[in-house]
Write a structure and sequence with these properties.
It is a single chain. The chain is α/β, with parallel strands linked by helices. The chain contains 29 helices and 41 strands. An 8-stranded mixed β-sheet has the order 1-2-3-4-5-6-8-7, with helices on both faces. β23, α16 and β24 form a beta-alpha-beta unit. α12 runs parallel beside α13 and α24 packs across α25. The longest helix is centred in the N-terminal third of the chain and has 23 residues. It is flat, with a radius of gyration of 32 Å. The relative contact order is 0.07.
Length: 962
C-alpha cells in the first residue's frame, strides 16, 4: 500500500489562505494521514442531505476504510484538499485520476474525477468555488487536463459551482445522474469569473472593517488618557450608530467607562462583536486575538506597535499575528495602524486616533503612514473636502491598499480615491485593479520612499528591479494619476471630486490681474495644456463682472475648462481691499451652474475670504450627490457627448463586465457643480487641471483599448520547442544568455530579423567577412565596455573597400587594445535612419515590461525611455513610440525625413508577443534598431532564457503568505 511519501513529498506550496465570499478567511491545505480525527469530526457535522448528495445514498458515518482512503493520498494521482477555519475542516475536495473507461489510472491519463463536500454551516460562503480553483491548479500541475463530476440533479448548488466556473464544459444526463466534464485550461471567462469573485470577497472583507454594527475596544484604560481610551472617545464623539464595548482585564463586570459597558474579556460579551480595535501592548495581543477568534469577531484593527517596524523580532511577531488571525478566519488591519473612519450616516465610525473625524464627502483616502494620514485629514478639512472613508493600514501585514481599492471600486459613496503608498506589495495585481478602478473613478497615488529603493521596515514586499520612473509609467498606463507630493494629491483630488472631467486641453483664463493671468498661461503651456489668451477684467472688476465673464467663457465651444484668477482690489489711495469672498464665490458658482459640463478652478492671491467661502460651499453639500447635469448624456452610465465630458464618478465598463454584477460594472456618483476648488498658486491649479485632462483622455481611450495583433508568420510552437531544447542544454538553473546564432534563430521565429554580424578576430578575417556580406560594411567592437557606445569611437561606418576596412581595423586596435579584448565584428551597412533601442524584461514583482527609447548616451542619461505592460496592443505600441521626449526625431524634426514608425510599432508588438507567449524569455534587448524611411534594421540582439518567474496573478485566489 502506498504512503504519502511513496509518490511525492508533502506539497507545502499548495497551502494558501483565501478570502471567502462573506469576507472571512479560510486556509486551504493538502489532507494528510494525521487528519483522520478532523475528517471524522467534520463528517459528523454534515447534514444527512449533504451526505446523500455526496455519496448518492444514505451514508451516516465513515468507515475506517473510508477514513484511510480519504486521508492517504499520493499527491499525484489522488489528491485531497481541505478548507479549514480554526484548524478544523469546513470543506473537502479530492480528485482521482481515471482512464477513458472511468477506472483508476496513472499518468499519462489526463482526466480525473472530482468530488466536494461542504459543511452545511459554511455553504453559501463560496468555499466550493474557491476549492475548485485550487484543486484545478493542482491538477494542471500534475498533468491533468480535464475534470469529470457526477452530481444528483437535486444538488443544484454543486451544479452551479461547476457551471459558473467559466470553463469549457460538456453536460450529459444518464441513469438519473448529471455528468459534467470540463477542461481545466483557463479561459478568458474563467479568469474574469475568478477575478470578479476575488473582487467581491476582498471588498466584503474591507466592508466588515468599515461597517460594523458593534465595536469592542480592547485595552481601554481605567483612567483618562492612553490609546485605548482615545479610540473609545473618538468612537463616541463621532456618534457611532452601533453598540460599543470597553475591554480591559482589570475591569469589573457590570461597570461602565464613559457610559460604555465594560468587560474583562471579549468572551464575556453576550452580544455579537463584529469589530475589535486592539490597543494593548504587543506581548498581550496574541491573547486578545485568541479571545476574539473564539468569540467569532469578524475583523481586527490592531493599533498596537512593536512589530516589523521594530526589527527582526518584531517581524516574526507580525508573521505570527497574521497566521493566528487567519486561523480564526479573521482579517487584520495593521499592526501599527492609525485606524479607520467611515462618515456614512448609517455608521459614523471613527475607530482611529484622529480626534476630529472629517466631514462627510465623496473622497476615499488610504495611507500607510499614520503621520501622513493626520496631515492629509487636516489639509482636506481646511479646504472643505469631505471623505467617505479613511483607512490607515500601518504595516499592512494583511489588509492592504489592493483590498481597499477592491472596496472602493463598487462603493457608491466614493467618487475619487486618494492613496499614499510607501510600498506596493503586489505591483502586478495593483496595476490590474487600478486599471479597472480607473475606468469608473479617478485614482490619485503618491508614493513615498520612491528613491531610497528600500521599503519601510514594517512592510514585507517583493522586491522589484525596475526603476521608480518605470513603475510610475506603468501606473499611468493603467490610468493612475501619479503625483509626486501629498499636496499635489490633495489638489488633484479636490478638482476631480468637485468638477466634471474636461473634454480636452483648451483652457480659458480670466481674472482681475493681467500678470497673474500670464503666469497661469505660462503654467498651462509648461504642463501641456492649450491656453487661450488671458482675459483681463481689470482690478476694478466686480463679482457681477466675474460672473458674466465666466459664463461667456463656459459657453465658448473653443474652451474645455476655465481657470479664474483673483487678487485684492487696489483703491485710489493705494490701499488694498478685497471683494466680499462670499459674493464672489456665489457669483462664480452661479456662472458655473449654468454650464456644469466644464470644470472651473480658481487661483486666488491674498483672498482667504474667497477660499473660505468656496470651502464653506463644499461643507454645506447635500448628503446625496446632485447630478452634474440634466443634459443628454449626463445620466448614470450614459456615454458622454462632446459637450458633456465624463464625470469623475462614472466610467466605462470593465472589459469583463459581462461576468460581473450590474452594480460592479457601472460607475457611481456624480460631481458637485458648486464645489469649485481654490488654489493659492497658479501652478498648483494648472497641474491639477492637467492631471484631469490626461485622465479624461485615458478614460476615452480605455473604452477602445485596441487589440493584440495576430501575425500569421509567427511560429509559436516551433519557438516553444526550441526554448525547451535550449533550456535543457543549460547547466545554470537560473538560466543564461543565448549565443548570437541561437538568439537570431529564436527571434526569427517571431518575424524579427537580425542582421548578421561576422566575427573578425584579425584583419584578414574582417576582409573575408566583408566579402561575404558585401561592401559597404561597418566594423564595431562588442567588448562590454564599448558595446553600443558609438560616442567612444568603437564603431567605424561606411567602409567602402578593403583598404578602408584594414585602416579602420588598425585604428581600433591601436586606440582600444588587442582584438581579443575588443571582439570586433563586421556587419553590412543598414539604410540610414534613427537609432533606437527596444527591450523587454520580466520583473518578478511588476510582470513583463516592454521599453523603448532612442539609442545613445543622452537618452540614457536623461531617462528618456517609455514603458508599457506586456502584452501591448496596437494602440499601446503607437503611444509607446510617441511617449518619449525625443519622439519628434522620428516624425521629421527640423526638416528631417520622417521614419517608418509603423514598422517600428510592428516590431514592438512582435517582441511583446514573444515574451507574452513564452515566459521563459525573461529578457530581450534589440540594440540598435535603425529605423529608416522605409523599414528598419535590427543590428544587435540579446535574449536571456530562464525558468519563468511565478505568476501569482494567474493562479487560484490566495492571500500573500506569512
Amino acid at each position: 500500500m502506498q504512503t504519502p511519501s511513496d509518490r511525492h513529498a508533502y506539497p507545502s506550496h499548495w497551502e494558501a489562505d483565501v478570502v471567502l465570499r462573506d469576507g472571512g478567511t479560510a486556509r486551504i491545505r493538502p489532507i494528510t494521514a494525521e487528519d483522520a480525527d478532523r475528517l471524522v469530526s467534520f463528517y459528523e457535522q454534515v447534514s444527512d442531505e449533504s451526505k446523500y448528495y455526496r455519496f448518492f445514498a444514505p451514508y451516516p458515518r465513515l468507515s475506517a476504510k473510508d477514513v484511510h482512503r480519504f486521508t492517504h493520498h499520493d499527491q499525484v494521482d489522488r489528491v485531497g484538499l481541505a478548507a479549514t477555519v480554526g484548524g478544523e475542516f469546513i470543506a473537502t475536495v479530492r480528485f482521482d485520476r481515471i482512464d477513458e473507461r472511468g477506472m483508476s489510472a496513472s499518468a499519462p491519463a489526463d482526466e480525473a474525477e472530482v468530488a466536494f463536500l461542504v459543511q452545511d454551516a459554511h455553504q453559501g460562503r463560496g468555499v466550493a468555488s474557491t476549492l475548485l480553483e485550487h484543486i484545478a491548479a493542482v491538477a494542471r500541475e500534475r498533468g491533468i487536463r480535464r475534470f469529470a463530476a457526477e452530481v444528483l440533479p437535486a444538488n443544484t448548488k454543486m451544479i452551479k459551482v461547476f457551471t459558473d466556473a467559466g470553463y469549457q464544459q460538456k453536460r450529459s444526463f444518464e441513469d438519473g445522474v448529471v455528468r459534467l466534464e470540463f477542461d481545466l485550461e483557463p479561459t478568458d471567462r474563467s479568469l474574469a469569473v475568478q477575478r470578479a469573485r476575488e473582487q467581491r470577497a476582498e471588498a466584503r472583507s474591507v466592508q466588515r472593517l468599515l461597517t460594523p454594527k458593534s465595536v469592542a475596544v480592547i485595552g481601554v484604560g481605567r483612567t483618562a488618557g492612553g490609546v485605548g481610551r482615545s479610540v473609545l472617545r473618538n468612537l463616541r464623539g463621532a456618534g457611532f450608530t452601533g453598540q460599543l464595548y470597553a475591554v480591559n482585564s482589570a475591569f469589573e463586570e457590570g461597570t461602565e467607562v464613559d457610559g460604555v459597558p465594560a468587560h474583562r474579556s471579549v468572551r464575556d460579551i453576550d452580544e455579537t462583536v463584529e469589530l475589535a480595535v486592539v490597543t494593548v501592548p504587543a506581548e498581550r495581543v496574541p491573547q486578545a486575538v485568541a479571545e476574539c477568534g473564539e468569540r467569532g469577531v469578524l475583523g481586527l484593527v490592531v493599533i498596537s506597535a512593536g512589530y516589523a517596524e521594530s526589527g527582526p523580532e518584531g517581524r516574526e511577531r507580525q508573521r505570527e499575528l497574521v497566521r493566528q488571525a487567519r486561523s480564526y478566519g479573521t482579517r487584520i488591519l495593521g499592526p501599527n495602524a492609525f485606524g479607520v473612519i467611515n462618515t456614512s450616516p448609517d455608521v459614523r465610525l471613527n475607530a482611529s486616533l484622529a480626534p476630529h473625524p472629517p466631514e462627510r464627502g465623496r473622497i476615499g483616502l488610504f495611507t500607510q503612514s499614520g503621520a501622513i494620514g493626520i496631515a492629509l485629514l487636516s489639509g482636506l478639512h481646511r479646504r472643505g473636502a469631505g471623505l467617505s472613508t479613511f483607512v490607515s493600514a500601518g504595516n499592512r501585514a494583511d489588509v492592504s491598499g489592493n483590498d481597499v481599492l477592491q472596496y472602493w471600486y463598487e462603493d457608491p459613496d466614493t467618487d475619487v480615491a486618494l492613496m499614499y503608498l510607501e510600498s506596493i506589495g503586489n505591483p502586478r495585481k495593483f496595476t490590474r485593479l487600478a486599471r479597472r478602478a480607473a475606468t469608473a473613478k479617478p485614482l490619485v497615488v503618491v508614493q513615498g520612499a520612491r528613491h531610497s529603493g528600500i521599503a519601510p521596515t514594517g512592510h514585507a514586499v517583493q522586491a522589484t528591479r525596475l526603476p521608480h520612473a518605470t513603475v510610475s509609467a506603468l501606473l499611468r498606463q493603467a490610468g493612475v494619476i501619479r503625483v509626486d507630493t501629498v499636496t499635489e494629491m490633495v489638489d488633484a483630488g479636490l478638482l476631480l471630486a468637485g468638477q466634471p472631467l474636461p473634454a480636452g486641453p483648451r483652457v480659458a483664463i480670466l481674472g482681475n490681474s493681467e500678470s497673474l493671468g500670464l503666469l497661469t498661461y505660462d503654467a498651462c503651456v509648461a504642463d501641456g495644456l492649450r491656453p487661450l489668451p488671458p482675459r483681463d477684467l481689470t482690478t476694478g472688476a466686480t463679482p457681477a463682472d466675474f460672473r458674466a465673464a465666466l459664463a461667456d467663457a463656459l459657453s465658448d465651444d473653443a474652451c474645455d475648462a476655465v481657470i479664474v484668477t483673483a487678487i485684492p482690489w487696489v483703491g485710489e489711495d493705494g490701499a488694498t481691499a478685497s471683494p466680499e469672498g462670499e459674493d464672489l464665490a456665489a457669483a462664480l458658482r452661479a456662472a458655473a451652474a449654468g454650464c456644469p459640463a466644464k470644470p472651473v478652478a480658481v487661483v486666488h492671491v491674498e483672498l482667504g475670504g474667497l477660499a473660505e467661502a468656496l470651502a464653506a460651499a463644499s461643507r454645506t453639500r447635500p448628503d446625496a450627490p446632485a447630478p452634474v447635469s440634466s443634459a443628454p448624456g449626463a445620466e448614470r452610465g450614459a456615454a458622454p457627448s462632446p459637450s458633456t465630458p465624463p464625470r469623475t464618478g462614472g466610467g466605462a465598463p470593465d472589459p469583463a463586465a459581462e461576468h460581473l454584477p450590474e452594480a460592479e460594472a457601472a460607475g457611481s456618483g456624480a460631481a458637485h457643480p458648486h464645489r469649485i476648488p481654490a488654489y493659492p498658486a497658479a501652478e498648483r491649479a494648472v497641474r491639477a487641471l492637467a492631471e484631469a485632462v490626461k485622465y479624461a483622455q485615458w478614460r476615452r481611450e480605455a473604452k477602445e483599448p485596441g487589440k493584440v495583433h495576430e501575425y500569421e508568420d509567427i511560429d509559436e510552437s516551433g519557438a516553444a520547442r526550441r526554448i525547451d531544447e535550449l533550456l535543457a542544454e543549460q547547466d545554470d538553473p537560473r538560466g543564461a544568455t543565448l549565443a548570437q546564432d541561437d538568439a537570431r534563430e529564436l527571434l526569427g521565429r517571431y518575424g524579427i530579423d537580425v542582421r548578421d554580424a561576422l566575427p573578425a578576430p584579425d584583419p584578414d578575417a574582417a576582409v573575408a567577412a566583408a566579402r561575404t556580406l558585401g561592401y559597404p560594411v561597418a566594423l564595431k567592437t562588442t567588448a562590454p565596455h564599448l558595446r553600443h557606445r558609438a560616442d567612444l569611437g568603437g564603431v567605424r561606418l561606411d567602409l567602402a573597400d578593403e583598404e578602408q576596412l584594414r585602416r579602420a581595423y588598425a585604428e581600433l586596435t591601436l586606440a582600444f587594445g588587442k582584438p581579443a579584448e575588443l571582439r570586433p565584428v563586421v556587419q553590412a551597412m543598414a539604410p540610414r535612419g534613427v537609432d533606437t533601442v527596444v527591450r523587454a524584461v520580466i520583473d518578478p514583482a511588476a510582470g513583463a515590461v516592454l521599453s523603448f527609447g532612442l539609442a545613445g548616451a543622452p537618452s540614457e542619461l536623461l531617462g528618456d525611455t517609455g514603458h508599457r505592460l506586456i502584452p501591448v496592443t496596437e494602440r499601446d505600441a503607437g503611444s509607446l513610440v510617441r511617449s518619449i521626449r525625443t519622439a519628434p526625431l522620428l516624425f521629421g524634426w527640423r526638416g528631417s525625413a520622417p521614419v517608418d514608425t509603423p514598422a517600428l510599432e510592428e516590431l514592438l508588438q512582435r517582441v511583446s508577443r514573444l515574451v507574452d507567449d513564452h515566459p521563459e524569455v525573461v529578457a530581450v534587448s534589440l540594440e540598435p534598431v535603425v529605423v529608416a524611411q522605409r523599414g528598419l534594421s535590427v543590428l544587435g540582439a540579446s535574449v536571456r532564457l530562464a525558468p519563468p518567474p511565478a505568476r501569482n496573478d494567474l493562479g487560484p485566489r490566495a492571500l500573500p503568505g506569512y
